Amino acid sequence: MPKKGTLLIVDDDRQVLSSMADWLREQGYEVEIATALADARAILQRRRFQILLLDMRLEDGDGLNFIPECKRDWPEMAIVLFTGYGTPEIALEAMRAGAIEVLTKPIIDEELGFALERAIHQQKVIQENEQLKKQLKERYSLENIIGRDPRMQRVYEMIEAVADTRSTVLITGESGTGKSLIARAIHRLSSRRSKPFVEVACGALPETLLESELFGHVAGAFTGATGDKIGKFMQADGGTIFLDEIGTASPALQVKLLRVLQDFEFEPVGSTKTYTVDVRVILATNEDLAQAVAQGRFRRDLYFRINVINIELPPLRERVTDIPLLAIHFLKQFSQETGRKFEGFTPEAMRALQVYSWPGNVRELQNVIERAVLLGKGPLVDVEDLPPNVVASLPPVLTVPSGKPLKQALSLPERQIILETLEAHKWNRQAAARALGINRTTLYKKMKRLGLMDAAPPRRSTVSH
Questions:
Q1: How far apart are CA 329 and CA 284, in angstroms?
Q2: With 0-12 CB in 10 A as exposed, 13-18 as middle and 19+ as buried, what is 437?
Q3: Which secondary-structure segment (H or E) carries 160?
Q4: What is d(CA 290, CA 306) in angstroms, rounded to the nearest whole number?
Q5: Three-state SS across 104-137?
Q6: What is the pLDDT of residues 158-217, one digit of tens each?
Q7: CB–CB of 396/407 below 8 Å?
Q8: pTM for this prediction
Q9: Distance between alpha carbon 85 and the CA centroid of its chain, in Å?
C-alpha cells in the first residue's frame, strides 16, 4: 500500500502507543514512535515528518510546552495534540501554540483518521500558498525586471528610492511597457508587502460602474444594487492600490479621487457614512496627462496631486540593447512552462527582433516568443518561427545600381572572366582551368552555377564515309 504520510507518535503509555502505531501502519502511514520528549527530539534531528502526534502529559515534560519548540525548529510539520484532560481552554491554548488538532483520549480510530486527513490537507494548502508566495515574489521582484539600458537603470534607482514611502507614484509609458510590473515591484519592496495589492483597470470598466468598483456601494444605491459592496480602496486598506489607465477617469470621478488622495476619505455610492483608509496609491497612464489638462479633459489640481513622483518607462524600440535579454528570458520561461527545448535564436531571428519597432512593446515581444516556442521546431528560434510583420522589418538584400542582389552582382565579373578564358582556349576546359589556376572539376561546377554550360558551342561530330 502506498504511504499516506509520515508520522511520529510520542506517548509514554506503551500499550496505547503500540496499538495506535499498528493501526496507522495498516491505514498506510509510515510510523515511528517515541516514549519521551528527549527521544522525540533525537528522532526529529535525524529525519523529518509530516505530522507529529503528541501526548500532552509525558514523564519528562509537557507536550503543550513542546509545541512552540517544534514550530520553531520544524515549522513545516503539522502537530496533533491528544490529552485525557481535554477542556476548551486547553484546546484554545494548544491551537494558539501551533497545534492544528486537539483530540481527547480515549481516541477513536475513525476520529483519528479524519484528523490526520485534515492535517495533511491543511499542510498541502500551506505548502502551496508558500510556493505561490515565492513565485509571486520572484515574478514581481525588482530583480525580475529585465533591462540594462541606462534609462531602465534610472527607473530601478527611482523604484528603490520611493518604494518605502507613502508618496503617490505616477507611472507613464506606452501600452505594454510593464507599468503593472513596476507597480508590483514598488509594493514588494515596501513595508506594505504583506498587505493587499489591489489593481484596477480603470479603462476596462464603464463610468457608471467604476465609482462603485473603487468606493463600494450600499444596497439600493442604484438599480441592481441588491446588497452592500466593499470597494477596492477598502480592500486595499493597509496595502497598495494601483489605478491603471487613470487618464480615462470621468470628471466626476476625478473630483472624488482628488479628495481620496488628499484626505484618504470617501463615501460609498449611495451612503453618507465616511470611511478612512490607509493606502499607498500608484497610478499609471499611457496618455500625455499634461496635454489632457491643457485640453480640459483632466483636472489640473488632480494632475499636480498625482504627479508627485513620475516614473517614465521608455518604449522597447528605444532600448534595443535590452531586446536580446528580454527575448532570452521569455524563451527560458516558456520553454520551462511548455516542456519544449529551445536553446536560443539564430542570428537572423535575433536581428529581426532588434530591428522591429515593437508598437506593443515588451508585452508584444513576450507574445511573439510564446508563439515561437509553441509553433517552432527548435532547438533555435529562426525567422520562420516569427510572425510575418516582425520578419518584414528586416531590411532587403543589399542591391547594386543595376537592381541585382549583391551576390548575383558579384558573380557577373566572375562569369565574364571565365567566359572570356574559355573562348580564348576554344572551350577547352582543361586549358581554361590551367589558365585560371583552378582544377577542371572546380571549373565545371562554376560553369554549371553561372549558366555557362549552355553557352558552350556545340561539338562537331565526325561522320565517316
A1: 25
A2: exposed
A3: helix 150-162
A4: 12
A5: ECCCCHHHHHHHHHHHHHHHHHHHHHHHHHHHHH
A6: 998 999 888 999 999 999 998 998 999 999 889 998 899 999 999 888 877 888 889 988
A7: no
A8: 0.58
A9: 51
Q: Nearest-5° angle of CA 311, CA 312, CA 315?
A: 145
Q: Could you report how far apart the first and last alpha carbons of the chain are, in Å?
A: 101
For residue 435, the Cα-to-chain-centroid distance in whole angstroms is 66
Cβ atoms of residues 222 and 268 within 8 Å: no
Residue with cell 554550360: 453
Tell me whether residue 254 is exposed, middle or buried, using C-beta atoms within 10 angstroms of its C-beta: 0 to 12, 13 to 18, 19 or more.
middle
pLDDT digits (tens, 9 = 90+) for 103-154: 888 888 888 888 888 888 877 777 776 666 555 555 544 556 777 888 888 9
Distance, in Å, from the CA atom of 358 to the CA atom of 175, rounded to the nearest integer, reads: 11
CA gap 335, 215 in Å, rounded: 42
CA distance 163 to 248: 26
Res. 2 pLDDT band, cuts 50 70 90: very low
Residue-wise pLDDT tens digits, 362-398: 999 999 999 999 999 878 999 999 999 999 888 765 4
User: Which DSSP letter does residue 170 get?
Assistant: E
